[in-house]
Design brief:
Blueprint (H helix, E strand, L loop, with lengths): L1 H76 L14 H21 L12 H8 L2 H8 L5
Length: about 150
């Protein structure tokens, strides 16, 4: 009876080991399926992320292009389109400041370079003496010896 008991115990132990091994294999199979599913989902998410990043770059490029067109239009409205290639601004406030400064500079240049009629021109001391025919004052004006 002890031989039968030992054999039965060994058989039970072997059966338990086989069951444990089968359970482990099933669990590994389930784990492998889960792993493959997760890998597929991860690859899909990575593809979506890459596509989204590409779309974001396209949107930023379009926004930048639109901003440059707005800058050019604003400069053209202010009569400053010649400065479009050198004006680099990043926001609306900065654009307004640059336009204000450039307009001021252009207006100052227009005033300085504007037409001055010859009859309103100020005469130098030499020219006045020459007009009067006074050679003595002409010489004084040349040598800076004015009264």
């Amino acid at each position: 009876m002890s031989d039968e008991k030992v054999t039965q115990t060994q058989t039970e132990t072997t059966q338990e080991q086989q069951q444990d091994q089968q359970q482990q294999e099933q669990q590994q199979t389930v784990d492998m399926k889960t792993y493959l599913d997760l890998v597929a989902k991860m690859e899909k998410m990575q593809t979506m992320l890459d596509n989204e990043a590409e779309r974001q770059k396209e949107i930023e490029a379009k926004q930048n292009e639109l901003w440059q067109k707005q800058v050019q239009l604003s400069l053209k409205e202010a009569g400053l389109e010649q400065f479009a290639s050198i004006v680099k601004v990043s926001d609306e406030k900065e654009l307004k400041d640059v336009i204000k400064k450039l307009t001021s500079i252009v207006n100052d240049l227009k005033i300085e370079m504007g037409y001055v009629p010859s009859e309103h021109k100020q005469m130098s001391a030499y020219e006045q003496a020459k007009k009067q025919g006074n050679t003595k004052n002409m010489i004084k004006a040349l040598f800076g010896m004015n009264n």
